[in-house]
From TrEMBL:
Coiled coil: none annotated. CDD domains: PDZ_PDLIM-like (cd06753). Keywords: Cytoplasm, LIM domain, Metal-binding, Zinc. The lineage of its organism: Eukaryota, Metazoa, Chordata, Craniata, Vertebrata. One of its GO terms (molecular function) is actin binding. This is PDZ and LIM domain protein 4. It is found in: Cytoplasm. It comes from the Eukaryota. It comes from Anabarilius grahami.
């Protein structure tokens, strides 16, 4: 399937968790979406692979780097996602 963009408008929290990362030898993936959250409103789903965070490729990111990139976005978060 073609990657697509998910735009979350702040303020944070965004309401989702991730797993994976270079340190786990797995793609950064959405592991949980909180009910009623901005992530759910934007149709993010568990299992979605996050390919970019605000235009930055996640392929070489450690889990903590991806977490920090997401946390540092307080007003808008743009994700490139593959489902």
């Amino acid at each position: 399937m073609m990657p697509f963009t998910v735009n979350l408008i702040g303020p944070s929290p965004w309401g989702f968790r991730i797993s994976g990362g270079r340190d786990f030898k797995k793609a950064i993936t959405v592991s949980k979406v909180n009910a009623g959250s901005k992530a759910e409103t934007a149709c993010l789903q568990p299992g979605d692979i996050i390919m970019e965070i605000n235009g930055l490729n996640t392929g070489e990111m450690l889990n903590v780097e991806a977490q920090n990139k997401i946390k540092s976005c307080t007003t808008q978060l743009q994700l490139l996602v593959e489902r």
